[in-house]
Amino acid sequence: MSEQTARGWQTFGHPGAVRLLSGAVEIERTSHAYLFTGPERTGRKTLAMDLARAVNCIPVPDLFGNVPLPPCGACSPCDRIARSLYADVRVIDVDTPLPSPQKASGQGSAGGRSRNTIGIEHVGELQREASLKPFEGRCRVFIIDGAETMTPEAANRLLKTLEEPADSVLIVLVAPSSTQLPQTVVSRCQHVKLRLVAAGVIERMLVERFNAGPDTASALARAARGRPGWAIDALRDPTAMDRRNQTALRIFSALTGDIEERFRYARDVSSTFRRDRAAAMDEIGAWLEWWRDVAFAAHGLHEQVINTDWLTSLSAIAALLDTDAVARSAHSVELTLDALWANAMPQLALEVMMLDLPGVDPSAVPAPATASAEADGGSAS
Ligand SMILES: [Zn+2]
Question: 66 CA distance to ligand 1 centroid (A)?
């Protein structure tokens, strides 16, 4: 596929997925339903929006009269879809207001209160809209962002739509992995897996597309842990790197703290979990990154370390623990993430993770001079 094909796609670092989808659009053979999976902020939703633009694009010829392949990025549908002003493209997530509160029938969803699930009412509204002809475009696109949060009833109801696809309806489910969705739903979608993006690719994107300076691009690309979305946000938000350091400080404090400190941390993160599940999952994910950094430090692979400000502490921790202890700790974090995805009680799951932590003598491990005490007991958000 030529460079031209991918020109209008905002998705970065996933050439295979873009090739697959743009090829399907070109020959008008898109699937009725897709499932985009991969870690948070890797570009799953961007890819879904690109696809929504591609199927509704009315390509505008360039100055030389060449007609670009969709999405052209210049026509009215492309522009309005990107700005969420297009009637036929809907994004549904846990924050999507219910169409009509009096119709709500439980399922953990309620009027203006925040939910953490996509309920049957959301899917009911999707079905109602999907039964109508497109309002202005060729194809009604429904993007269910956070499909793993669908209640079983919602997933079941969605299944009916997936079983009887309409020609002018495209459904895209976005989730971390297919294992968090009913197999019956997964089997009716074309599954596109996004992986973490190499730091070098993110760095190039930051320079070429976002005009980042080389030093900033290099630092953010490394800190992004394979997530272009995080890097783009961090470029716009100078406090992102600082927040990352605060997370490292909380991890450091829990690791070098006594059991009370560790349990306090478990309580804090579980309370974050109730408010903002994604932020809590991010915080726990940072532990994996931390243990990976300890392993890199143990092997002298300093250029691979993400928490560069913490290199001295990481090396000291690596010197105190054997490689098995580091591997076991990383595994314990993975088990915690799995348990939380399977709806375990957050505080309990986190307390187990804290109990699994190896003992680290604080007097043997220096904290970096840049670390402030601000984050002590702070929230993960
Ligand atoms: Zn267009």
Answer: 13
Distance 61 CA to ligand 1 centre (A): 10
Mean pLDDT of all residues in the chain? 89
Distance 63 CA to ligand 1 centre (A): 15
* Gap between the Cα atoms of 152 and 174, Å rounded: 16
Residue range 3-193 in CATH 3.30.930.10: no
State the Cα–Cα distance between residues 281 and 273, nearest whole angstrom: 8
Residue 33 Cα to ligand 1 midpoint, Å, equals 21
CA–centroid distance, 67 to ligand 1, in Å, is 10
Domain boundaries, the chain: 3-193, 197-237, 241-375
Q: pLDDT, tens digit, for every residue of 65-83?
A: 888 889 999 999 999 999 9
**163 CA to centre of ligand 1 in angstroms:** 30
Bridge partners for 91 per DSSP: 143
Please tell me the distance between residue 70's alpha carbon and the centre of ligand 1 in angstroms.
Answer: 6
Q: Are 111 and 101 within 8 A, CB to CB? A: yes
The protein residues having their C-beta less than 5 angstroms from ligand 1 (an ion) are 57, 71-72, 75, 78
Distance of alpha carbon 238 from alpha carbon 235, whole angstroms: 6
What crossing angle do the helices spanning 277-298 and 259-275 adopt, rounded to 10°?
Answer: 140
C-alpha dist (Å) from residue 46 to 80, 206, 220: 15, 16, 19
The dihedral through the CA atoms of 72, 74, 80, 83 has a sign that is positive
DSSP state letters, 100-147: -GGG---TT--TTS--SSB-HHHHHHHHHHHTSPPSSSS-EEEEEETG
> How close is the Cα of 25 to the center of ligand 1, in Å?
13
pTM exceeding 0.70: yes
Distance (angstroms) between ligand 1 centre and the Cα of 233 equals 25
Sign of the C-alpha dihedral computed for residues 134, 110, 339 and 293 taken in this order: positive
Distance 58 CA to ligand 1 centre (A): 5
pLDDT digits (tens, 9 = 90+) for 99-119: 665 444 444 444 444 567 899
CA distance 30 to 251: 45
Tell how far the Cα of 80 is from the centroid of ligand 1, in angstroms: 10
Please list, in sequence order, all residues whose beta carbon lies within 8 angstroms of the beta carbon of residue 124, skipping any fewer than 6 positions away.
Answer: 103, 157
Residue 69 three-state SS? coil
